[in-house]
């Protein structure tokens, strides 16, 4: 659910013989010489474009997601934990004593509502995720003992 972050537009006057300047050979967004943008993933070789009439004049790429710091609260409206991930939860303005799992109901062919699964709680009592108010953070890594 997080929003993509993009590089700045980079000038590139590509021709039919141009090689993609990115390491993985993938351009995510390009501007053609006629001004149209293409949002098709793939390398220039896979696009149906006529380099004699049309050329790529700029490109940009999706930036890798920055890792979340273990001490930063993340709004559920911006990013959700992975299904089955146990997290530290702040719900209704209160940091919860127990670390629930982020889960999703099985109804509607596995597309049910998202909820927080607490241990030792009746399944019906597990609260639904409030995407506007709930915040979470990943659990910190366990302390590493010397010699292990």
Give structural attributes.
single chain, 148 residues, mainly beta, 2 domains, four-stranded antiparallel beta sheet
Tell me what the structure shows:
The chain is mainly β. It has two domains: 66 residues, no CATH class; 65 residues, no CATH class. It is 3% helix and 23% strand. It has one helix and ten strands, in the order ββββββββαββ. The strands form three sheets. A four-stranded antiparallel beta sheet has the order 1-4-2-3, with no helix packed on it. Strands 5-10-6-7 form a four-stranded antiparallel beta sheet, with no helix packed on it. Strands 8-9 form a two-stranded antiparallel ribbon. The chain starts with 9 loop residues before the first strand and ends in a 10-residue tail after the last strand. The model has no long low-confidence stretch (mean pLDDT 74).
Share of helix among residues?
Answer: under 10%
What fraction of the residues are assigned to beta strands by DSSP? Answer: 15-25%
Biggest β-sheet description: 4 strands, antiparallel
- Helices and strands, in N-to-C order? EEEEEEEEHEE
Given as residue ranges, the uncertain stretches (5+ residues, pLDDT < 50) are none
Major beta sheet, strand line-up: 1-4-2-3
Rounded to the nearest angstrom, the distance between the terminal CA atoms is: 37 Å
Overall 3D shape: elongated
User: How many structural domains?
Assistant: 2
Structural class: mainly beta
Rg over CA atoms? 23 Å
Number of strands: 10
Oligomer: single chain
Count the DSSP helices: 1
Mean pLDDT over the full residue set: 74
């Amino acid at each position: 659910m997080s929003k993509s972050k993009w590089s700045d537009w980079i000038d590139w006057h590509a021709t039919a013989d141009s090689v993609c300047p990115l390491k993985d050979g993938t351009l995510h967004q390009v501007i053609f010489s006629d001004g149209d943008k293409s949002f098709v993933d793939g390398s220039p070789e896979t696009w149906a474009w006529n380099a004699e009439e049309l050329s790529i004049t700029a490109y940009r790429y999706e930036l890798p997601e920055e890792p979340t710091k273990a001490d930063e609260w993340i709004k559920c409206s911006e990013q959700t934990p992975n299904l089955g991930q146990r997290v530290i939860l702040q719900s209704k303005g209160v940091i919860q004593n127990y670390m629930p799992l982020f889960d999703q109901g099985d109804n509607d062919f596995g597309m049910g509502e998202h909820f927080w699964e607490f241990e030792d709680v009746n399944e019906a009592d597990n609260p639904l995720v409030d995407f506007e108010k709930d915040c979470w953070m990943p659990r910190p890594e366990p302390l590493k003992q010397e010699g292990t």
